[in-house]
Amino acid sequence: MPDPGPLVPDVPALRSRLDTVGYLADDALATALLLAVRMRQPILLEGEPGVGKTEAARALAAVLDTPLIRLQCYEGLSSAEALYEWNYPRQLLAIRLAESRGEPLRDADLFTEDYLLPRPLLAAIRHPGPRPAVLLIDEVDRADDEFEAFLLELLADAAVTVPELGTRTAVTAPVAVLTSNRTRDLHDALKRRCLYHWIGYPDTAQVAAIIRRRVPESAEWLAARVARGVGRLRARQDLTKPPGIAEAIDWAAALHALGLCALDTDAADRTLGAVLKYAEDMNAVRRTGLSELVDAEAGPDG
């Protein structure tokens, strides 16, 4: 199995390679990701929505030149939905063919690898390599306690159990990245199996740099003003959903798409739905005045 080490020999190299795929990481995050790759230990990325947790996993997969296999968690997600399903139409066809030929057919004949359809977790375990797949278990805090318990075998042993077939162990263990918005506390047993890193909201200068990467057609002055405007929104205490990096990117893209050449109160009002996603938040900002979102000099020369 090729060692991913040559691709990410050290933290500066990993930061540089993440940068080339459009993801700006600080030393702390780059170190955490490097350890996850080198130690082949799952990593739990926590932080507020929109700070780039999911994108970190995407970028890591791009750097390693390996597939990203994503499992989006939600309330009520079952282990079977995340692990595998059986190809029932093909099984039914096999039953009918056997009946037409008068051949006996046992359950064991129907529940084989040939009829197995892997879902994300099993797909990551079965990934042949040569490099490990990046398994993104996204928003694990939205899943139930029972699903957390199910994940323990996968995270501890890079293995899963299919009741009809037994335990399947990875030939090339995946790099597992779990994300959480911390809507609820995860169990200690899950956290003990993971490295941990909290992704905070970046400062204004870094937000502006991210906008420039993701919306390269936006002017430098506009990226800076959008970053400052989002920072002011995040400083408010009365918003249901303060904007994250994703909203900052959307705001800059919306301003560019409309051909607006200034971030003034009119432009902010027209594009407010790109950065705020609740009517109550939009109303609150409009009540207090949109001038707080823009600089006194809102044009490119300001």
Give me the side-by-side strand order of the main sheet.
Answer: 2-5-8-1-9
Provide the helix percentage: 40-55%
Distinct helical segment count: 14
In whole angstroms, the N-to-C terminal distance is 55 Å
In total, how many beta strands?
9
**Run of helices and strands:** HHEHEHEHHEHEHEEEHEHHHHH
- Can you give the mean pLDDT? 87
Low-confidence blocks of residues: none
Shape category: elongated
Structural class: alpha/beta
Radius of gyration: 24 Å
Percentage of residues in strands: 5-15%
Largest sheet: 5 strands, parallel
Description of the molecule:
Strands 2-5-8-1-9 form a 5-stranded parallel sheet, with helices on both faces. Helices cover 46% and strands 13% of the residues. The longest helix is centred in the last third of the chain and has 16 residues. It is built from 14 helices and 9 strands. The termini are far apart. The chain is elongated. It has 302 residues and is α/β, with parallel strands linked by helices. The mean pLDDT is 87. A hairpin with a 3-residue loop joins strand 6 and strand 7.
